Amino acid sequence: MTTNPSAPAPLFTPLRAVLAALLFSGLCQGTAAARGADGALGLIRVPNNGMPALVTPGGSFEAVLLGEAELRLAQGDREWPLTPSWTSLPGGRRAAVCAVPADVSPGPCALRATADGVTDENLRSVWVFAEFPREHYVLAHLSDTHIGKERYARSSDDINRDLVAEVNRGDAALLAVTGDLTENGDPEQFRRFLAVLDTAAVPTFVCAGNHDRDADAYERFFDTSTYMFTFGRDGFLVYDTREYLVADDDGPQNGLLYRFRRALKPGRWSVGLTHRHEDGMGMRAQLLLHVDEPIDFLLQGHTHTENEPGQRVPWGTTVQYIVPAAIDGHLRLFDVTEQGVIPRAVERPVETGERKDGRRGPPR
Ramachandran region of residue 251, left (φ > 0), alpha (ψ -120 to 50) or beta? Predict the structure, then answer.
């Protein structure tokens, strides 16, 4: 779980240049050097590059590991030893609260853990920022990347890599990718998705979609599908539609949603990030998120088409935004301001090439 008390400001051009240099000079080259040989998480579970920690020098973050270890932050060719405060978690896991040394430069860091002579590493898992936003920042939104769905002449990897490059060229402060990351939850598709994700020059937050569900494949690569984080004065609640039933359900996600929603109440805006929303899903979560303690905005994918402007969930005030599929070349930016989470027009900046059925462009 990421529960940062504050979060970073937009990445301005000079800082972007520094981050790009770090990302492409070796810090984030390939996923085989981090995690396991197949890209799955190892000793370090959280933070990771799909659920990073956001901190300032001197601030702190929480890490979750399978056991205690010697922890270090790494950035380029520098390392900083950490002095964690450990607590026990259910299931034998250990949580470590870690203070970030004051001389760590702004940018992405790897978290390294060494136990019994073996070192594990999560790249792009801790982002250090000099300052936090107060009034305005930009959020980039992708969904339905469907790595492994080869619908077009261009590969799914290339299409999505170009979309991330488009985000890098813009003014986004962070990137959300809301599910159907893969075509069928195959571990090799997750590994390919990670290789695309690690080209991002901003923090990346992901959630699971229905296509990512092959047993516990998603959890092997991102550990948990329900979490929260804060960014400036705003709170983000990320949850997984797999937990819903077409009836009332009393699963573990409802308790997490209740706890996270209460924690985010003091913030300015509350934003839900999920893969899909359907009216027949479990009513306890629906009532919590859209009636009793309604979140302000809901960002999702799943339908592969944009919804009507200003659409709200049927029984609440939550404003709903659906972005068309990234596999079809789409992305959307939002301005998060004192007036709300304000969408820019959906963009299709990436050419997909001819469809394999002989047509051109996204399906109609």
Answer: beta
pLDDT given at position 244: 58
Q: Please compute the mean of the pLDDT values over residues 105-118 and round it to a whole number.
A: 96
Q: Does 223 lie in the same domain as 89?
A: no
pLDDT reported for residue 213: 84
Longest dimension (CA), the chain: 59
Query: CATH code at 332?
Result: 3.60.21.10
**CA 272 to CA 179: how far, in whole Å?**
13
Distance from the Cα of residue 298 to its chain's centroid: 15
Measuring CA to CA, which residue among 206, 229, 168 is closest to residue 19? 168
The answer to whether 288 touches 244, Cβ cutoff 8 Å, is: no
> From CA 125, how far away is CA 199, in angstroms rounded?
13
C-alpha to C-alpha distance for 256 and 289, rounded to whole angstroms = 12
Give the pLDDT score at 11: 45
Instruction: Select the more confidently predicted residue: 276 or 34.
Output: 276
For the cut 60, the answer to whether the pLDDT of residue 289 exceeds it is: yes
Strands 78-81 and 118-128: unpaired
Question: Do 78 and 177 share a domain, yes or no?
Answer: no
Stated pTM of the model: 0.89
Q: Which domain covers residue 290, as residue numbers?
A: 137-343
E-assigned strands of 160-249? 174-178, 204-207, 227-231, 234-238
Using the predicted structure, report yes or no on whether residue 297 has a pLDDT greater than 70: yes
Beta-carbon contacts of 109 under 8 Å, excluding residues fewer than 6 positions away, are 73, 74, 75, 125, 126, 127, 128
